[in-house]
Design brief:
By secondary structure, the chain is α+β, with helices and mostly antiparallel strands. Helix content is 25%, strand content 27%.
């Protein structure tokens, strides 16, 4: 009889633990999917604003409310590799005319951003694979807007304003 009660008590505790774990997992999933996430950035494309191994917080509320603006830094799925995320600055929104030339190009070319797309570029134009390579990015690929730099601690805070270097027309 004691063995049955012990087994029943163990079974109830195990089921209770699994239930709480599933609940917390669902809450964490919803928080990361709909509120925001922590992202470790790699590569030189956003220097000097974001450097290699910086950790940023990307909020998702703006994306869901269609509040992404020119100058915002966003995390998006790469148009080349959907398993990879990219961190770039929004240079143009749908209907905008953007300069598609590189910083050292003699002849400047322009294009219009089609409906439902954005134009993304890195702050380090000489070392960035961005919309100048893969064209306008569908809005649906944007995962969130970067609003805070968390790491390294001496750079903690809100990100700097967009450099106005003539890319936004």
């Amino acid at each position: 009889m004691k063995t049955g009660r012990m087994f029943r008590g163990f079974f109830v505790k195990t089921i209770s633990f699994v239930g709480y774990t599933v609940q917390y997992g669902c809450i964490a999933h919803c928080a990361f999917e709909y509120i925001g996430e922590f992202v470790s950035c790699s590569g030189p494309s956003m220097e000097p604003t974001i450097t290699n191994h910086d950790v940023v917080f990307s909020e998702r509320v703006s994306r869901h409310l269609c509040r992404i603006q020119k100058g915002d830094i966003v995390i998006a799925k790469s148009p080349f590799d959907p398993k990879m995320n990219i961190c770039k600055r929004v240079i143009g929104l749908e209907g905008d005319k953007v300069c598609t030339s590189g910083p050292s190009d003699v002849f400047k070319t322009h294009t219009y951003v089609p409906r439902g797309h954005v134009w993304l570029e890195g702050d380090n134009l000489r070392n960035s694979t961005d919309s100048r390579s893969y064209g306008p990015v569908p809005y649906a690929l944007i995962r969130g807007r970067v609003c805070l730099k968390l790491w390294p601690p001496h750079n903690f805070g809100v990100l700097a304003e967009s450099p106005n270097d003539g890319r936004i027309l």
